[in-house]
Specification:
By secondary structure, the chain is an alpha+beta fold. The strands form 2 sheets. It has a 5-stranded antiparallel beta sheet. The chain has a 3-stranded antiparallel beta sheet with strand order 6-8-7, covered by helices on one side. It is elongated and about 115 Å long.
């Protein structure tokens, strides 16, 4: 083997590596410079996270165009060429996916810095998250399909599949009806503004916060930190409560069953003192009224408002505990009591207590 046969592959491979590093360094320098000139646009600095897939694309492209010059692949050109082509396609898919992720993240960050509307922020975040996942799914499918089509056998299969695409589409649609339904339901949730990340919802009698939304399922974190995983089609086919719809503010109620002699006006004044001293009250409204009466008790409803579902829960607990403690201390007769008495017999006499022996 001559010296030229040894040096040629070394020069080709090392040249490709050096050129790849040079291109990566140049792109990184330009991005840093653009980031320094435009600090109000974080996109340029965030795009630096695409350096690794960019280097893979450049290196695989350079080697794909020059590997035959090395002389080392004689008799294996097809295998080496296909391997480099697969690496190039994988790198392109990785790079596109990374760019989409960066753009989505920067777009949400810029919007969050300009907007102070929490409901709108949740809606935009939900939409961008689902767009990112749909785009990522499409990129992966296209990349894998392109990689498979580099094999002659797969191209033949693809041709035959296209010939029977109508029948296959019908069969696939029937078999994946549930999956496709969830997929379209996810897009409907994203752009129909039905439910958003961070919304407080009631699912199967349990209230919690929407923690994650994907194309097929939705995760709700309950108040006791349990997770409900629900298909997204649930929210498009069934009625549900969304306490964050139209604003996070919420009204809560506390019911008491008390004696007829309860001093309602004093109880109302005490409620005002408790509410105004609480950090969970949002200052909008509070009230106390008698809503019903029975032969033995009256039903009293205390109404309070709070900034969100968590705050109203805490405020309701404070009101319930505070009013019961105040009644027990100041007006114990107002608390309901169960009156019992012996039933008279036919001759008007009380029955004797039954003995045990």
């Amino acid at each position: 083997m001559s010296t030229e046969d040894v040096l040629r592959p070394v020069l080709v491979v090392s040249g490709a590596v050096v050129l790849t590093l040079a291109v990566g360094a140049l792109v990184d320098f330009l991005l840093r410079r653009a980031d320094a000139r435009h600090p109000e646009t974080p996109l340029w600095g965030a795009l630096r996270r695409c350096r690794v897939p960019l280097r893979l694309v450049v290196l695989s492209a350079l080697l794909l165009g020059s590997y035959e010059e090395t002389g080392l692949t004689e008799g294996h050109e097809e295998f080496v060429g296909r391997a480099l082509t697969l690496a190039l396609l994988a790198g392109v898919g990785w790079l596109v996916n990374r760019i989409v992720n960066v753009i989505v993240e920067v777009t949400y960050s810029r919007y969050a810095n300009r907007s102070r509307d929490a409901a709108r922020l949740r809606r935009v975040r939900t939409q961008l998250t689902l767009v990112e996942r749909v785009t990522g799914f499409v990129v992966i499918v296209v990349t894998v399909a392109a990689m498979l089509l580099t094999f002659p056998q797969m191209r033949a299969v693809g041709t035959s599949m296209l010939a029977s695409a109508g029948i296959i589409g019908i069969i696939a649609g029937i078999a994946a009806q549930s999956t496709l339904g969830n997929l379209f339901a996810g897009l409907q949730i994203a752009f129909g503004d039905l439910v958003r990340l961070g919304d407080t919802v009631v699912v199967e009698g349990e209230w919690g916060t929407v923690e994650e939304i994907t194309l097929t399922f939705l995760t709700v974190k309950t108040w006791d930190e349990r997770r409900y995983t629900v298909p997204v089609s649930y929210f498009t086919s069934r009625p549900f409560e969304n306490w964050s719809r139209g604003g996070a503010e919420i009204t809560g109620t506390v019911f008491f069953h008390l004696d007829h002699h309860t001093p309602v006006q004093a109880l109302r004044e005490r409620l005002g003192e408790l509410v105004e001293a609480s950090d969970h009250w949002d200052g909008r409204n509070w009230n106390l009224v008698v809503t019903d009466t029975t032969p033995s008790t009256i039903e009293v409803r205390a109404l309070v408002t709070a900034r969100d579902a968590d705050a109203v829960w805490s405020l309701r607990c404070e009101v319930r505990e505070g009013l019961v403690a105040w009644l027990a201390e100041k007006h114990p007769y107002a608390l309901p009591r169960i009156m019992t008495a012996h039933a008279p017999t036919a001759d008007g006499l009380r029955p004797r207590s039954a003995g045990l022996g």
